[in-house]
Amino acid sequence: MAKVQRKKKVPIDALRALAVDPNQVEVRVGGRTVATIGRQRAEELGLVEGGAWTPALAARVDAAAAESLAREAALAFLAKRAWSAAALEERLVKAGHVARAARSAIRALLADGWLDDHAFATGRVEHHRRRGSLSEEALSELLQADGVGEKDAAEVARTGAATESELRLEVRRAKKAGETAKRVAGKLARRGFDPDTIQDALEHAGYALDE
Q1: What residues form DSSP beta bridges with 27?
Q2: Are 188 and 133 in contact (CB under 8 A)?
Q3: Measured between alpha carbons, how far is 90 from 198 in angstroms, rounded to an integer?
Q4: pLDDT reading at 47 higher than 50
Q5: pLDDT in tens, 147-195
Q6: 49, 70, 160, 179: least buried by Cβ within 10 Å?
Q7: pLDDT tens digit sequence for 52-94
Q8: What is the pTM of this model?
Q9: Are residue 191 and residue 180 in the same domain, yes or no?
Q10: Which residues, in sequence order, are CB contacts of 109 under 8 Å at separation 6+?
């Protein structure tokens, strides 16, 4: 009976640090670069020169390389402006990154402090309030539309929404500018304020209730 020849194991030729970024290493197998991943990730995967390059290990390295590319792209996006975690993950997928890699990259960025939905939401409050006062509920909805999670959006909206004094001041200014009570009331209703709150602000501004 003929002996079954075992397939020769392919070794990892080298792990070469990149000159531009020593924290990134090229994984070379069979005389060519098969992936570029973070040095720490390479250590976590157990990559060593001379180690066996198996199909299972190749699959794990491919996944790590995809995550590394997604992370690099995410940092490039963050260098231009702030993002919520959900919105940035969606942007990465839209840019062509594998969904699993994008998700893993976002989780790592959150853990490393590069992403912070609470801080992002706080920064968005000023943007949303440029046109005037907003109710807590309306502000929370806008923040969630920005990709902020419901919990963070609610917490930030609780402190970022207009106070009673701020709302009254805005309505007094509107009256001074010649705006009618009907116009002001409609504007405030669209910003999420309830009828009682609107009536209170109108009364304190000196509007006649039957105006």
Answers
A1: 15, 35
A2: yes
A3: 38
A4: yes
A5: 999 999 999 999 999 999 999 999 999 999 999 999 999 999 999 999 9
A6: 49
A7: 999 999 999 999 999 989 999 999 999 999 999 999 999 999 9
A8: 0.74
A9: yes
A10: 71, 74, 75, 78, 85, 88, 115
Cα–Cα nearest to 199, from 179, 174, 191, 189: 189
CA-based radius of gyration for the chain: 28
Tell me the two tokens of residue 102: 């994008």
Q: Looking at the structure, tell me whether residues 23 and 83 fall in a common domain.
A: yes
Q: Is the same domain home to 96 and 122?
A: no
> What b/e readout covers 37-69, taking b as 16+ CB neighbours within 10 angstroms?
bbbebbeebebeeeeebeeebeebbebbbbbbb
Within a domain: 3: no
Q: What is the pLDDT of residue 6?
A: 52
Distance CA 46, CA 102 (A): 23
The total of structural domains in the chain comes to: 3
Express as a percent the part of the chain with pLDDT over 70: 95
Beta-carbon contacts of 167 under 8 Å, excluding residues fewer than 6 positions away, are 133, 188, 193, 197, 201
